[in-house]
Specification:
heterodimer, A: about 300 residues, mainly alpha, MetI-like fold, 12 helices, about 0% strand, B: about 325 residues, alpha/beta, 2 domains, nine-stranded mixed sheet, two-stranded parallel sheet, 11 strands
Chain lengths: ~300, ~325
């Protein structure tokens, strides 16, 4: 009797755990399904060729064009700028923290770095608009008040801790024996860091890069506040433009009735974004598997 | 256990009593152009009522406001243009009647960055050339508007497509309501536009003149020439006298509040409208608008008391060149 009760209890616990795991899967499936469904509705009205090749995006106006390219260009440009800031700074600070810094310094600085990642992005947005842009305008006189450069840089600052922290974890996991072996062969500290530790931790570092890129592509508030709201097919970082995420915010803030084509553009834009981040995640997974060095 | 139940009940009772006290709420939404006046009136009104009546004022744009009014979600809707046929239809469907009350006169200001030293004035024709749908992607440089202007990009900013300002501007300049190019920075939030124009030396934009009044030092006001000498010669600025006289054409217009007829029977709404009509003139001046003549406010209140529903504009939406005298004759 007691044993049977125990058995039932175990099954219940197992069931609850299973359902919790299932729940997140169902939510994911639900989101993807809604995205697919609404996007399908969208492409009933707009040809996919227009969507991918038209160079204008003006679904809210009389003269409607549904070319996603200007929004893609905006997202691409701000992401490139962010990555150009985050990758070098993130990687260099990771190398310093892992190879050069004392253990005490490391334990003090790492949480501080991670706090940067916890600042709400809306704060970063106004930081870009009201602080970074005016400073940049003093250096570059032709810079518009809304532009890609300033939110790109601030976004880079935001993702630096992600890159630094994850890369540092990967480097820290490289076995001490490898470093000692290199030292025994007469390598300098920098040679050990650059030629032994970084290659050994490459899969982890690459994964952190991809995660950073994926974060930059999906970032919303910073670009919605500081990059402007004008879809524009350009790679000039000095003029106002609009990213995919900023467009979604713009439409959602206005008063767009459900079921209209303007409403469906939200999902088409969201779907494009989803595809990009999905591909990035797969690449990151593949990189990790392919280049993973296993040390026993 | 018993103690905690008692304290729970006590907390609940306190909340209930707070709720009962705060029961009177006036819900207002709509145009961001009318917002400064209504918000100023609402603040003074709440002070005068010692906080017994709460007034919330949203800014979802004239179009957004009408959608909410016709859905019965709000008591009053701010509107920077008269109601449109599609909205008349929507209200009819939901069985909502509304009382239209003009509250002030507003000019739409055309603005450039203070560093812009070439724009001296713009004609209505030039504005049309910039903003019409055909200009999309084609008119992108200042020297395409006037050859003597620099060969530099023009960065356009304008009120969002849900705003009455956008509707009126397109009607007055392009000649067709809700029709313009789409490649400009558009926002329902006028502060975003102020920020954009104030920090971009190549900017040109439009929004309600009140937001210019708040940000005079950061913006350059551009005079407008409608090339019609009968209402004033040459380029004209949206200053008080020009708007009252009807000289700042075609970019000045009356702005309104629309009251849900069902709400009009509530005593707090009656008190609010009474307060609005008595103080709206003074307050609209304070926040940068042009007050209507005193008689207009009296007529407005009468209209409310008699519960005259519908629009004096016949539900056709924006009309260009309406003068205050004309508006009064229609009352």
């Amino acid at each position: 009797m007691h044993k049977q009760f125990q058995w039932i209890k175990e099954r219940i616990i197992e069931g609850v755990l299973f359902l919790s795991a299932l729940f997140s899967i169902f939510v994911t499936i639900g989101i993807v399904a809604v995205l697919f469904f609404e996007t399908y509705e969208f492409f009933k009205e707009v040809s996919i060729v227009d969507f991918l090749t038209d160079t204008q995006w003006t679904p809210l106006f009389d003269e409607k064009h549904f070319g996603i390219l200007p929004l893609f260009a905006g997202t691409f440009l701000t992401t490139i700028i962010a990555i150009a800031v985050a990758l070098p700074i993130g990687l260099i600070s990771a190398i310093y923290l892992s190879e050069y810094a004392s253990a005490r310094f490391r334990t003090a600085v790492k949480p501080a770095l991670e706090v940067l990642a916890a600042v709400p992005t809306v704060v970063y947005g106004y930081f870009a608009l009201l602080f970074v842009t005016p400073i940049l305008q003093k250096i570059i006189p032709g810079l518009s008040g809304f532009n890609a450069l300033s939110p790109g840089i601030v976004m880079g600052i935001m993702i630096t801790p992600i890159v630094a922290s994850l890369s540092e974890d990967a480097m820290h996991a490289v076995p001490m024996g490898l470093r000692e072996g290199a030292y025994a062969l007469g390598a300098t500290k920098f040679q050990v860091a650059a030629r032994v530790v970084v290659p050994a931790a490459f899969s982890g570092i690459a994964a952190s890069f991809i995660l950073g890129i994926s974060r930059a592509v999906g970032e919303t508030m910073i670009v919605a506040i500081a990059a402007g709201q004008q879809p524009r097919l350009t790679l000039n970082p000095l003029v106002p433009l609009e990213t995919i995420t900023a467009y979604i915010v713009q439409v959602s803030l206005g008063d767009t009735p459900t079921g209209t084509i303007e409403y469906k553009t939200i999902f088409a834009a969201g779907m494009s974004l989803f595809v990009v981040t999905f591909v990035l995640n797969i690449v990151s997974y593949w990189l990790r598997k392919k280049f993973r060095e296993v040390y026993e | 256990m018993k103690k905690s139940i008692i304290s729970l009940i006590a907390i609940f009772a306190v909340f209930m009593s707070i709720k009962l006290h705060a029961a009177q709420v006036i819900k207002i939404d709509g145009s961001s152009t009318v917002y400064p006046i209504t918000e100023a009136v609402a603040e003074e009104f709440q002070k005068a009522e010692k906080g017994k009546i709460k007034v919330t004022v949203g800014i979802s744009g004239t179009g957004g406001g009408f959608k909410k009014l016709c859905n019965g979600e709000t008591d009053i809707s701010n509107a920077s243009r008269p109601i449109k046929p599609s909205e008349v239809e929507l209200c009819k469907k939901k069985g909502i009647d509304y009382i239209e009350i003009p509250v002030a006169y507003d000019g739409i200001a055309i603005l450039a960055n203070p560093k812009n030293n070439w724009v001296d004035y713009l004609t209505v024709k030039e504005l049309k050339k910039i903003w019409e749908p055909e200009a999309q992607v084609k008119i992108t440089k200042w020297n395409q508007i006037r050859p003597t202007w620099p060969d530099k990009e023009i960065h356009l900013f304008g009120a969002g497509v849900d705003s009455g300002t956008y509707d009126y501007f397109t009607e007055a300049i392009v000649g067709k309501e809700h029709s313009s190019r789409g490649d400009f920075t558009s926002s329902e939030d006028d502060n975003v536009l102020v920020q954009g124009i104030a920090t971009d030396s190549l900017a040109l934009g439009f929004f309600g003149v009140a937001y210019y009044e708040y940000n005079k030092d950061k913006l350059k006001l551009v005079p407008i020439d409608d090339q019609n000498d009968s209402n004033g010669k040459g380029p004209i600025l949206p200053e008080y006298d020009n708007v009252v006289k009807g000289a700042y054409q075609p970019l000045s217009r009356p702005i309104f509040i629309y009251v849900n007829k069902k709400s009009a029977d509530k005593p707090e709404i009656q008190r609010f409208i009474d307060f609005y009509m008595k103080n709206g003139g003074q307050l609209s001046k304070e926040v940068g608008y042009v007050a209507l003549p005193a008689l207009a406010y009296e007529l407005g209140f009468k209209r409310f008391e008699k519960r005259i529903t519908g629009s004096v504009f016949g539900g056709h939406g924006s009309q260009v060149g309406v003068k205050i005298e004309e508006l009064l004759q229609r009352e």
